[in-house]
Amino acid sequence: MTVNQKARAWSPRPLGPSVTTPRAAFKRADWLRARKSPAPGLMTRAESAESWLLQRCGRWSSALLSGFREPFPCCRCSCRRRLLSGIMVCFRLAPVPGSGFLLLCLVLGAVSSYALELNLTDSSNATCLYAKWQMNFTIRYETTDKHNKTVPISDLGAATYNGSFCGDDQNGPKIAVHFGSGFSWIVNFTKEAASPSTYLVDTISFSYNTNDNKTFPDAKEKEVFTVNNRVALKIPLNDIFRCNSLSTLENRDVVQHYWDVHVQAFVQNGTVSTTEFLCDKDKTVTTAVPIVPTTLPSPTKPVVGSYSVVNSNGTCLLATMGLQLNITQDKVASVFNINPNTTNATGSCQPQTALLRLSSSNIKYLDFVFAVKNENRFYLKEVNVSMILVNGSVYSISNTNLSYWDAPLGSSYMCNKEQTVSVSGAFQINTFDLRVQPFSVTEGKYSTAEECSADSDLNFLIPVAVGVALGFLIIVVFISYMIGRRKSRTGYQSV
């Protein structure tokens, strides 16, 4: 079978033209002989391919090819240049055992959101499985100093699909995605004999390796961890499943997020269906209308919303606030408010970290990540956001080194006055009537609040103002009394 795969960054622009090398056909034995003992002064075929790629596609492509030991029965490279987000390089890589060739498209550049696409074909080159989706992960792990740390995983730009499978009489189809240093994500599909007109998205498993010192530099345990989720999502056999809305799976220390999902296993006659089977969230949100930022000299105050996160022990996080987002692009500032009535709240609670995730039809995710410091206080440590703008592009930004909303553990943080959380120079969040408690929530209620300095200043001014008013009143009464007493004495003297 042949796996055609793409891992590309979201870009509203079309791809640029490609440059293709002539097809090179040769035998494997000839390749190996030439590779081991090339003629003096001549390059092997692999070296020639690497040289051509280096000229066309730069050092990245040569370095990538040099990491593969197996020869190519044929090699065909396309270089797409000067995309909005970077450079797209396409290679035909090592063959999958018992199948055709693996087409890997890598997008190079600083992009924070990737769309994955898999078109799996059988021996007759007919499509048997199609999938397109976006995803990211949040992993919590224990550090060497016995604290818990949360790390987001969202860079899937170098994903491969080795092990993806159309299915046979004994095994169902499978999507296998490998990326980064030891990350793998596998989806298994099954059919039930009792229901021949449907199939199941059966299980989803995710594995990560804490031996990756770049992602987990201070992990206490260095090993491979795997989490499994039983999904059992039933899909009509001849329909393509679609779910543009955000979906979340949480298991142990891993939170998985998916959106813009299109998938069809057991494709009939090699043709992907145009009939969509929608997830429940998409049935109520049929169209994702892009956020239209409105530049306002004096923006209106946003509606205050109440959000909560629930785990097996009950409510573990509470938040009440009005939210206003400020985005600056090309020196033009745009301000718009979040409507709590159309916003969903999810998240997770751990001993050392807590996550509040807000999402809507236009906001893929707005994450507030809280952390414990010095074992007795909490604070807002991280904000991540990804949203659809008016031009259809995806705006994503993250800051993992914040320090806002500091309060003692066992209490809540409150600030009625407007506050600004500066995520970056181009993105800020204004909060109104804020109260948040990410840890130690009891009976689903807020604990005693620690007020922000702005509210404290206001509370200090109120008694001062009352005292001044009372002092002024006393002075007026005293003066009136003295004037009255003086008049009385004058009357007695006249008599």
Q: What do you see in this structure?
A:
By secondary structure, this protein is an alpha+beta fold. 16% of the residues lie in helices and 45% in strands. The chain has helices at residues 28-36, 45-57, 59-66, 280-284, 453-494, and strands at 2-9, 78-80, 87-92, 102-108, 114-121, 127-142, 148-153, 174-179, 183-192, 195-209, 224-236, 240-243, 247-251, 254-264, 276-278, 305-311, 314-329, 332-337, 344-349, 353-359, 363-373, 377-388, 394-399, 404-408, 412-415, 419-424, 427-437, 449-451. The strands form 4 sheets. Strands 1, 2, 3, 4, 5, 6, 7, 12, 13, 14 and 15 form an 11-stranded mixed β-sheet that branches. β19 and β20 (353-359) form a beta hairpin. α2 runs antiparallel to α3 (59-66). The model is unreliable at 5-113 (pLDDT under 50). Residues 302-441 form the Lysosome-associated membrane glycoprotein 2-like luminal domain. Its main location: membrane. InterPro entries: Lamp2-like_luminal (IPR048528), Lamp2-like_TM (IPR048524), LAMP_CS (IPR018134), Lysosome-assoc_membr_glycop (IPR002000).
Please state the structural category.
Answer: alpha+beta
Q: Span from first to last CA? A: 126 Å
Helix content: 10-25%
Strand residues, percent:
35-45%
User: What is the average of the pLDDT values?
Assistant: 76
The level-1 CATH class of the largest domain: Mainly Beta
Count of DSSP H/I helices: 5
| Oligomeric description of these chains | single chain
> Quick one: how many beta strands?
28
Shape: elongated
Report the sheet with the most strands, covering strand number, pairing sense and barrel closure.
11 strands, mixed
Low-confidence stretches: 5-113
Q: What is the CATH architecture descriptor of the largest domain?
A: Beta Barrel
Radius of gyration: 31 Å
How many domains comprise the coordinates?
A: 4
CATH topology of the largest domain: Porin
